[in-house]
Amino acid sequence: MCGIVGYIGKNNAIPVVMQGLQRLEYRGYDSCGIAMMNSDKMILEKVTGKVEELQGLLARQKMSSSVAIGHTRWATHGPPTISNAHPHTSQDGKVALVHNGIIENYKVLRDGLISAGYEFSSETDTEVIAALVSQAYHGNLEQAVREALSYVVGAYGLAVIHTDEPEKIVCSRKGAPLIMAMGDGEFFVASDVAAILHYSKDVIYLDNEEIGILTPDGVKIYSGDDEPVDKKIHKITFNLEEIEKGGYEHFMLKEIFSQPQTIFDAMRGRLLPETGDAHLGGIDHMIGSILHADQRYFTACGTSWHAALIGEMMFEQFARIPCEVEYASEFRYREPLVDAKSIVFAISQSGETADTLAAIQEAKTRKATVLGICNVVGSSIARETEAGVYIHAGPEIGVASTKAFTSQVTVLSLLTLKLARLMGMSREDGLEISQAMQKLPENVEWVLKQADQIAEIAKLYSDASNFLYLGRGVNFPVALEGALKLKEISYIHAEGYPAAEMKHGPIALIDKSMPIVAIAPQDKTYDKIISNIEEVKARHGRVIALATEGDTRIKDIADHVLYVPAALSFTAPILNVIPLQLLAYYVAVERGCNVDQPRNLAKSVTVE
Ligand code: M6R
Question: How many angstroms does the Cα of residue 131 sit away from the middle of ligand 1?
């Protein structure tokens, strides 16, 4: 979602902040801006559109400053215009502020300020905080920020500067991520480590309601109760190459092709192929509680929710333990039947999704044990959960999640295997499954070799307006995921359906302009899916079938066939989703879409 970068130190802040904003572009945004101190004067520049344009503007002005805060905005309150772009300033021009999150009571606060004579220049919720800070300022910025935030209901990650204290940045967070980082005589604040990784790997994760103060002499942090806090400095272990394209045209393509490695990394040291078992260090001590819980829930959003659906089916089919999946955004509104005997798994790539964090809070309030399955180390969800498993997929930059999905499913498979063995799965079955999992990276390589064929098919269908994805059993969530990938990045309307449901409604849509992607592996539903394909063909629909290597029968019915290696239902979802990721990618490229930063979307959705 929105991005924040701030710098104070011995060097010119402008290139640091601008480079940071560029590194955050992948998160999605529609406008951007920077505020900097020039002796005790505030200078403000904002543009709608690309960071590049802001950079060009600043280059022409040849400015330098040792203190600056910058922002990329993804519009929530008010359209993407220059006046709505951040930083926002107070009416007297002394305060500048950048903010991620949403202030829920902004209307009441704004109306109150307006009746007291305050004039606003934007439609944003953020400007209200700048106004409150300005009104609370009596010579100490951190105190003013603390007071201003005491009036605010909602989520925030923010950084503020004031012309009366030109050598200071004050920052704080609640429900939106914010980190501080230390360099040699220079200090940073950012909403994402990627923004400052070029300069520092020594990072502090701010906790909710903490206030951070950055000056040229160092950083200080105070708790919500205004007590000094001694925070741990975390060493970031990933490097810049991991967040660069490495020769691929897009991050998404790089991430699709990295899956043999990322799946291997998710299993490393966890899969036990000699005994047909698995162990997951982060939650092994919780296995008894998971098995004996009264209720088990998975909660997540988007692609992570699709992974959760697969997890549910695997838990039930192989471990024979029931579990439910709920959209994180719905979880707290449905009065979930969750109590101290419940286990809730929160699944999230970013670990910062506001809806998922809210679901975690709800589960915790109801005394459930909450476990995380996360990618980003040190993220809010990783810290808010009692224990958990990292998927180790490395930084995912493309807004459309690909490698995180297959790593989430890999971790859920390992967890299922562990639970299934404890619930009586035989050693032989465990060995068969673990050996199939061990072969996954090699099999994914095999599927990836069909990229050129998929690119050719994509050319034929890139002008379609609608797509239908059909799958049965564990391939139904795969169909949902394939459809989500396509709509996110190509803007083609796509729907995923359980194949048999087609005849209960969507069949009405089928004509010769409607491509159908049918996931038809040779498993127990094969004959039924073949009948569904026949039904589509009888209505002149065009079928792209995903079939098991060696299946010749399907060639006679489908218009195109993409093959995947024969797989157990345990490993099938991972193999089957890869061609769908590639199909979505090549269709989007063919349509000239911005694959890595699709319109209106953000990498991590930090608003509810
Ligand atoms: O970071 P999270 O896994 O919590 O994100 C959840 C969704 O926002 C995310 O999966 C979204 O649907 C992606 N754009 C899918 O590609």
Answer: 33
